Amino acid sequence: MRYLPLTGDDRAAMLAKIGAPNIDALFRDVPSAAVVSRSAFDLPDTQGELEVERGLSRIAARNVAAGSVPFFCGAGAYRHHVPAAVDHLIQRSEFLTSYTPYQPEIAQGTLQYLFEFQTQVALLTGMEVANASLYDGSTATAEAVLMAQRLTKRPKAVLSGGLHPHYAETVETLASLSGEVVRAPITPGKAEDFAAQIDNQTACVVVQSPDAFGLIRDLRPIAEAAHAKGALLIAVVTEVVSLGLLEPPGHQGADIVAAEGQSIGNGLNFGGPYVGLFATREKFIRQMPGRLSGETVDANGKRGFVLTLSTREQHIRREKATSNICTNSGLCCLAFTIHLSLLGEEGFVRLARANHARASALADRLSNIKGVELVTPNFFNEFTIRLPKPATSIVDALADKRIIAGVPAPRLWPQERDLRDLLIVAATETASDEDCDALVKALSEVL
């Protein structure tokens, strides 16, 4: 396929047909501040395919891959080891050719692994039912808020200050038109008090644990406060490996759990595609977005799988739909299912213990550096430290030493000046002793 299949005459004929004077007129609704002029891009003239490949390869070579240097970034996307068996199995032709089971009767294999995936997610989260995945963790969180508004017939959503800001922004984008979204204050390393913000108009309280600073939250008092006012508790998990050690949100009173499943079976992949996990109580199932695969028996008594709940967006009036972003990340949740099956329950717990041990040891070493303060008192594999200098400058200085030290808080909260000296550090099982030594040594040198 050619990149430019239309000639100038073709484009002129199309513009004349629709009554537009030129191509720029097609973008007149775009704010001028958002329009980038063509002269802003320093691109060469037309080149052959070989020259283009060489040019793009030179640009790609400037990237620093997570596995090529000591790497301590987290903040919602985590580097874990994915066994080679996962990639091998998901590339089998039976899986590569499967898609959303619009005709369930001929998609038994797809429905079976979705059923197994749902079972895994329900067990991990401590909930009664889980769907066949959503687009990613942030949109799953927004869908949870919309679902809570439908269930309670209330407009207000209260978001924890420790909720990942990208998740909060996604909630505001999707849920603000159907109600009110209120953000609690940001209190790094501390649990904020929700009591004053929960009233008889509150549909839900959204709390992340571990939160964006790595703090592990006790959800029980929040659940009690929400339920006392007739509101629901939505628990958010961005690091699903933490559920190998922490008590499941469902056992702490959560009504809906929205999570990001990228850590299991899926690499960082430059930010996607990822896989949204969504689980809830069985009594809420009719308002759950997405698909649900179920097990049954046929006329001969043989086990089979069906779509117990399908995407009603495709079948009924839009105003009755339960979801606007119902994408099932099929291949990603297959990778999740295979990886978790290979680990097994004991292996998953061992993986979680290895993550916590690695992060705890690193936190102790970093907090012993003069001028460094550990902000997060209890955490899983991610914690926040306070530096004597702006975190962004420290990260840049360590990047020059080919060490990716973590995520500076100003990158996530650019308007919060009180957070400019905070650095969020994640240490998974992939951080070796040599990597941790390099970080401690380099940070000591630049401070």
Description:
- It is a single chain.
- By secondary structure, the protein is α/β, with parallel strands linked by helices.
- It folds into two domains: 70-81 and 345-446, Aspartate Aminotransferase, domain 1; 84-339, Aspartate Aminotransferase, domain 2 (3-Layer(aba) Sandwich), CATH 3.40.640.10.
- It contains twelve helices and 13 strands.
- It has helices spanning 8-18, 49-60, 84-90, 93-96, 108-125, 137-152, 165-175, 220-228, 330-367, 391-400, 409-412, 433-446, and strands spanning 129-130, 156-159, 180-183, 202-208, 232-237, 256-260, 276-280, 292-297, 303-309, 373-374, 382-386, 407-408, 422-426.
- The strands form three sheets. It has a seven-stranded mixed beta sheet, sandwiched between helices. Strands 10-11-13-12 form a four-stranded antiparallel beta sheet. The chain has a two-stranded antiparallel sheet with strand order 8-9.
- Helix 3 packs antiparallel against helix 9 (330-367).
- The longest helix has 38 residues, at 330-367.
- It is globular and about 65 Å long.
- The N and C termini lie far apart (54 Å).
Which labels suit this protein?
447 residues; alpha/beta; Aspartate Aminotransferase, domain 1; seven-stranded mixed beta sheet; 12 helices; 13% strand
